[in-house]
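S.,

As promised, the protoporphyrin IX containing FE run. Input:
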Amino acid sequence: MNSESLLTRVGLSSAWNKSASVLTFVSDALLNQLENVSSDKKRLTLITGTVVTTSFVLWKMMMPRRSKSLKIEMVSGGLPYFGHYFELLRDHQAFLKRCKKEKGPVFTIRINNEDLTIVTGPLIREMLHKSRYFNFEEGIQSIIPIERALQVSYDHKYKGEKLSRREKNPVSYPIKHNFKEEQLGVFSERLQLAVNKALNAKLDIQPGEKKTLPAWETLALTVSQISCLCFCGSKIGCNQEFVLAMANFTKNVIRIGIALTVLPNWIANFVIKRYLSVESQIDLIMDLVVPELEKIRSGKISHDQEPTYISMALNLPKAGGQLRTPQEAAFAFKSVVLASIHTTTQTASYALHELACRPGLVADLRAEIEKLDKITPETVGEIRLLDSLLREVLRYDISIFGMNHKVMEDVVLSTGQVIPRGQLVHGAMFDAHTSPETMPETAHISLTPLDQFDAYRFLNAKDNNMASSSIDSEFMTFGLFAHACPGRFFAVHEIKYLLAILIMRYNITTKSGERAQDFLMRGMTRFPPTESLIFEGRKQYVTI
Ligand code: HEM
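Predicted complex:
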């Protein structure tokens, strides 16, 4: 056997087969040589040499991943305990540039005594692609234990269903299959009703009258109103106690999660049960949603009359073909609340803060909106400048590190480096979305550098491949591949309509006229500014 055929065999077989191939090859060669060797001394030298060579080759083959050079290395510098925190805080772009120059596209940094593995550029895409190895939900859970927060609040009353691996997920499946762009028409009227209803309740001001409000609260309530009407239907969606409870649900769950991470268990359990529990909010979901679903199940109400997420979850059969109970479907709704209301509110808040310091952009958008015969989610959805603004907000207003995924099995990256099982990996999201090397197409369509905000940037995109809901490796805020956000079409649809109405109803400014400062947690996670915005009534808007 020649060495080429040996290599072919080695490449195709498992480690054991590789070893067997090497041994076969070596023993064949040894037997051939031994026949031609005369003295005992020569025989001994040949046998010893062969054994040493074979052992070395086998060791190389069996242990390639343990090689020292394949380790992910810690970036130099840093202070005791704080590690690289202050350098990251001072100038995250310069810090990441240094890290990449020193250690390549993947490295470890230390922030407040915690070691974080950071992947950059194309490796983020690679991480999102390998969903078997990198798990988003587990990543979130290891930062804020949301699942445990819900268990502590509600396990004593109801535990929900255990999902098997074969199961169609009752949270994501109905959204993936019923919330595509072309299916959103069924929500149009409820979306319009929700926006006008929430703004009339919270921001009913006369032309010229001013009101100063934190953007987040106003938007969270409006987004919650939209979600409750569209996901649960008109009857439940008009219950204001429910709308308010869902607006604050994620924030409250996060508070519990934080208590669980920072306090010893027995104190956390006491504090949660006494002060923080979301039991009453989940009670409200069960009390309102279960009777509605029972009516659907018994045929008293038709799902076709008004499609809702809850009825879609109810009608999704389980893996074994059984029907889901109204309790099980109602319980799944809380996960949709967690996935949708906070994320949408966050993006809408950023967009409003970008608009509040750009009167020229607002004037351009108003001119586009005024051209429409009627302001509906569908007509507004066609305004390219609004879509460009939204994509830019989603591209630019993101965390320094995000897309935290937990490694489920030891994984070898294309760089040859190994990330061990259990490790939490962060994507350098802002860096990936602002580096010309990782954003070649986006970098070419505007003269504005990628590390500056430009609401007009995507107006020059040739076709629809740069729409705010179309994901690609230059736009990863909604995730990529198998687990990309299934609610992104709905999110974009509702945010654009909401912004259009806000633009038409109010003049919105910050106190200083400048973009208010974002809130940065641990130097890496960004949140929209907490500074209030000034809303001035512009003209009456006819509600439907
Ligand atoms: C601007 C708003 C939103 C952003 C930025 C966003 C972003 C994301 C991201 C990054 C993921 C995780 C992808 C992964 O697993 O790697 C995700 C998952 C998900 N999102 Fe969204 N989302 C938004 C709005 C919504 C809305 C409005 C809905 C519901 C209509 C929704 C429903 C979901 C669901 C059900 C999942 C889980 C998908 C799965 O595990 O397969 N999201 N979203």
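Residues 117 and 403 are 12 Å apart (CA to CA). The chain has a mean pLDDT of 89.

- D.
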